[in-house]
Amino acid sequence: MRGAIAVLLVLALAGCRGGGDGQRDDPVANAPAVSALPHDRAAVEAWNRAHAAGRTTGLELVGVDRSGLDLGALDLSGLDLAKAKLGGAKLVGADLRETRLGKADLRNLDVREARLDGATLDHAQVTGIVLTDASAEGLGMRWVDLRDADLRRTNFHEADLRGTSFVGAVIEDTRLDRADLRGADLRGVDLSSASMIDVDLRGAKADEATRWPAGIREPIARGVELDGVTAKGLALEHDAQKRQAAEGDSD
Questions:
Q1: Among 9, 116, 150, 200, which one is most buried in terms of CB atoms within 10 A?
Q2: ∠ CA 190-195-198 to the nearest 5 degrees?
Q3: Range of the domain at 55
């Protein structure tokens, strides 16, 4: 009997130690605190573990400079990076959800395949930004200049893009459904392949070179301010485009 009890005690102690070992082996729970934003990709994994464990809080990141660095899929979700200098950096696949980047220098930043849902980029410098194949639902990006930006295949569903200039931006298969484009500058922009369901266009600026998706036949009726074109002329242009497309299909 005493032998059986001893065996049970040994097994119980081993089980307790096994549970403790499992916790000690948890890379997130035991991630060490970090003292600074990474300077290279080698430190990204440790940073991401620390951030997941809540051990990046209290760091002063406002105005931080990581210009031109390749930081890969860095997790910056929920952090305050206002006025940060990230121009020319690479954050491909990064997690920027709810990140505050107001007035940051993001010129020529590469954020392909990144997650920017709920992030704030108001008044940021974003010319030349590469924002393709990304998720940016609910993004706040007001009063910015998107000249030379690449926005192909990105989802801006319900994004706040008021006052933003899209002049010179590449928009292809971009989703702008339910986005707020009040006061946006769309002059000369090709929106023909974009999805713009229930988009708010009041006060947006466009001209005869602006190309609209099939669902927006009368932008003037939606509050768009058109330079050098009348509603009648725009309707006739759309009719001509539809006829050309039909003829192309029949061929």
A1: 116
A2: 115
A3: 22-59
Q: Supply the pLDDT for residue 59.
A: 87
CATH number at residue 202: 2.160.20
Q: What pLDDT was estimated at residue 7?
A: 43
Please compute, for residue 121, the number of CA atoms within 13 A of its CA located in the half-sphere on the CB side: 32
The conformation of residue 73, written as its DSSP 8-state character, comes to S
CA 60 to chain centroid, in Å, comes to 23
pLDDT value at position 34? 79
CA end-to-end span of the chain: 92
Residue of 116, 27, 46, 41 whose CA lies nearest to 73: 41
CB 140 within 8 Å of CB 158: no
Both 75 and 131 in a single domain?
A: yes
167 token code pair: 């002049």
Per-residue model confidence (pLDDT) at position 19: 47
* One domain, residues 143 and 39: no
Strand-pairing partners, residue 225, are: 205
DSSP 151-179: -TT-B-TT-B-TT-B-TT-B-SS-B-TT-
The residue whose two tokens read 């200039």 is: 165
Q: What is the mean pLDDT of each run of 10 residues along the chain (251 residues)?
A: 50 47 50 82 95 89 97 97 98 98 98 98 98 98 98 98 98 98 97 96 94 87 76 52 63 58
